[in-house]
Structures are given as structure tokens and as C-alpha cells.
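User: Hey, my collaborator sent me this sequence without any context and asked if I could get a structure. I don't really work with proteins. Can you help?
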Amino acid sequence: MRRSMLPPLLVVLACTTVIPTSSHAQATSKDAAPKQAGHAVSAPALAPELVSVKASLEKYQDPIAALRDGYLSTVGCIDFPKGAKDGPITYPPGAMGVHFLNMGNVGPTLDPAKPQVLIYEPVNGKLKLAAAEWFMPEQVAGGKAPTIFGQTLSGPMDGHQPIMPKELRHYDLHVWLWKANPKGVFTSTNAAVKCPAGDPYTFAEGTDGHMHH
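Assistant: No problem. I've predicted the 3D structure and written it out in C-alpha cell form, which is a compact way to encode the shape of the chain:
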């Protein structure tokens, strides 16, 4: 994406409710993947740094608190029922949920206390906080993949249509702080997350095994 396109694009995103991200890209957690016991998935085993980050974000269990702090909902619940391939990036079967983006947190550095995205799972008509995502547009990154928590963000990748302009190439990293992920804390999709089947705001991606932009 040309540098001249970024500022107006970010303004458009900040002023809409249908905004990104579904960050996406498989990454392997340094922590052991949580095991499933019976019908439930146990709480994620988090490194001390992530325990601290989780505690600092607890107020966002209430999505209204997120709205008050500048996070705007993308509305759509992103699901990869069959997984997908997007170039070198693999999405295991699972969902991502509903993304809330705060453009005020987008910049050339990543702050553990200020994720650019909060991710919620719709459960019985309510939104439950499941994960946070650190996100950086390619032009802001300056040609180098950013890192946080000892992980390199996946990308750069095109924006994910229809909820994100294709031109918004970016890096991202999902961190499942609240909803245990059987594939690991840093894997982009989570098989334990469910999007409402048949809901008009559920976006089933990669149904043919590939992402389309």
C-alpha cells in the first residue's frame, strides 16, 4: 500500500463500525497448549508477563468499557470452520470472534498494556472477552516485522475483506488471554470459540480452504 494512502484510510476505519481485523496467522505458543478436559477447555496457562497483561485489561470484560476507551466494534464474528491458507499463513479450523479496534493505539511501537484490538465471543446474546490482538499496518512498521511477548507478528498480509480494506496490509498477533486455545496462546484461530451459526453477522471464511480478498 502506498504511504500516501495510510492516513485517510485510518481515518475512515476509525469512523466506521465495520472495521478490521481479524488478524490472522498461525503462531506457536512457547507455553504448552492447554488440554481439553471433558466438555470444557481449562483456563490458559500463561507466562508471568501475560498474566500481568491480562490483569491490566480485565476492565474490558465489559464491552461498554471498551467502547468508552475508544474501541469500535467490527460487528462481524469471524469464523474459519474449515481453516484456510493465505499464502504462507495457515489458519487452523476455529473462530476469531468479534474484533473491537482502537485506532488511537496504532503506532510504530507496541505497548503490552494497549492492544490495538480486543476480541469477544458471542455467548447467549452477550459478548465475552476472549483475546487481545496486537496489530500494526505495514507502512507504520517501516519494513520490519514487529515483535512483542517474544513473538514476531505474522505478516505482512492484505486486509481481510469484506470487513477490512484489502489495501490495509498489516502485521498481527492474537493472544488468547481469557479463552483457552487448544492450539496455543498465540495461534490466530481458536477451535473453542464459536460464532452463531446462521447469524447474518457471522462471516465464514476459507470455506474452500483459501482466503479470498
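In plain terms: The longest strand covers residues 126-137. You can pass these C-alpha cells on to your collaborator as they are.
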